[in-house]
Write a structure and sequence with these properties.
With 169 residues, the chain is α/β, with parallel strands linked by helices. It is 17% helix and 28% strand. The chain contains three helices and eight strands; from the N terminus they run βαβαβββαβββ. The strands form two sheets. The chain has a four-stranded mixed sheet. Strands 5-8-7-6 form a four-stranded mixed sheet, with no helix packed on it.
């Protein structure tokens, strides 16, 4: 576990994300899943990385991996299959510390949800709309969400944000 930095030393101020990396067990299967989900081809496909310096930078004894990259309008998604060392599957769930989720913003959640279901995507439940008393700030009322997983269990979300959840882009 990481040590906590001392906030009295000042803020670092990072403001722009470049990409999110998702560890996968089967790169080809995951590329097919994300290709269908995103409706685009990867900009990098089946590239490799490895070597002792790279391994050391990740706190691993050795590293050999294959990866693919998809570029969204505002973020890259790197799919990474570690060939050496092969890791154990994570026990991910929305409530498990250390688990993350990747959220995709949509305008019409129900339409996207229905199209995804027809295409064979499985959801964890039905779409949900936040009601009064369930979400703050109150101007986020009406925000719609739906949750699903990728083939390795990575938590994914669709959101049609309202008010306090809407981002200025």
């Amino acid at each position: 576990m990481a040590t906590m930095p001392n906030p009295s030393n000042g803020s670092i101020g990072l403001r722009t994300a470049a990409h999110v990396g998702v560890a996968v067990s089967d790169l080809d299967r995951s590329v097919a899943f994300y290709q269908t989900l995103l409706g685009t081809e990867p900009v990098v496909l089946d590239e490799t990385m490895g070597g002792p310096g790279f391994a050391q930078s990740q706190g691993l004894p050795t590293t050999e991996l294959r990866y693919a990259t998809f570029n969204l309008d505002n973020l890259g998604i790197d799919l990474i299959q570690f060939q050496q060392p092969v890791g154990e599957p994570a026990q991910v769930a929305a409530n498990r510390p250390g688990s993350m989720h990747l959220c995709f913003q949509v305008d019409d959640l129900r339409s996207v949800f229905d199209r995804m279901r027809e295409a064979g995507f499985d959801f964890l439940g039905e779409p949900y709309t936040f009601a009064e008393g369930e979400v703050y700030p109150a101007d986020a009322l009406g925000t719609e969400v739906a949750y699903f997983n990728d083939p390795d269990g990575t938590n994914l979300e669709l959101i049609a944000p309202k008010g306090g959840f809407a981002r200025n882009t």
